[in-house]
Amino acid sequence: MDDAFLDALLDDDVVDLYENAPCGYLSTLPDGTIVKANATFLRLSGYALADLVGSKRFEQLLTPGGRIYHETHFAPLLRMQGQVREIAVDLVTPSGERVPVLVNATMKVDDEGNPVVIRAAVFDATERRGYEQELLAARDAARDAEVRARELASTLQASLIPPTLPAIAGLEVAAAYRPAGAGDEVGGDFYDVFENGRGDWAVVVGDVCGKGVEAATVTALARYTVRATAARGRRPRTVLSALNDALLRQGAERFCTVVYARVRLDADRTRVTIGAGGHWLPLLVTLGGAVSEIGRPGTILGIVPDPHLEDTTLVLQPGEAIVFFTDGVVEARRGDDLFDHGGLCDVLAGCGGRRAEEICTAVLDAVLAFQDGLPRDDIAVVVLRVPPSGE
Fold it and tell me: Strand (E) positions, the chain?
């Protein structure tokens, strides 16, 4: 095999490699006029060589949006950097079909730095574009599903919490609820304030173990069982005992903690009777800012047939407030630190003489600030206050 034959064979291989490379090759003048194109590019673009060389500029093969991008980004970057990589555009074939491509290009300059020719490699990106569109569609679907889940959780949660609090003559009532995290899951915290008779009111604050639809089912059971029982037996321990029985009959393997307060408004005094089933005891805040617990601890509800439950009665003086809360307040975490019961007492010590709404806001703001605005657990707070005469 002589040298001339080898040279001819190599020349043929080089030509074939250029013409039928895995990507399209294109050479243009600095103004974009096409001067050379390989067979792969012709197949990709749908043009014949005679239709391109000397008569078309590269940007003329692009969509209107692609032409704008070529003018504002592709060409300036190429002039400044001497090369561009992975520019995504669409070629438009003579039949009007769009072909997604990725373009890498370099600019050759002469000894004086003047541009001479632009060489481009054009890759078929049809499959990649399809994959990207699938990813975008999946992302949009996931985002829509997240929005729907959040809306569903919000709607379901709203059905378990009074939309508005009743106006009670001679008593200020305020409440706040903040779901954990982004609020896209139904929590187990709940509260209720309702009337049992003339001058006879009930306040309920509770926390069902767990989250989600099953927890919401138990929350609904707890709330409506309490309302139904309170109409027949108004002692807190009676109401909580009935709720315990209902939970055991339900067999949902969910327990809950609840504090129930009966509030009786007479002409000259406000009597409050409190019973707690495994829940944090409410706190009394005096006009001067003294803070103390009210009531006696009781058994968590939904676990044993005969829970230990006790009632405690006190007369709420003008200017005094009772603060009910769930464990999302005192068990709020920041790293290894707990907001804790002491943190809540510190906040309330500065709330003596403040209105119920102001006390509620102060507690919620303090807990959220402690967790940098993103609570790890649901938060529920209810405040009752007897306003001083003349306020």
Answer: 24-28, 34-37, 83-92, 98-109, 115-124, 172-178, 189-197, 200-208, 256-265, 270-277, 283-285, 291-293, 311-316, 321-325, 333-334, 337-338, 379-385
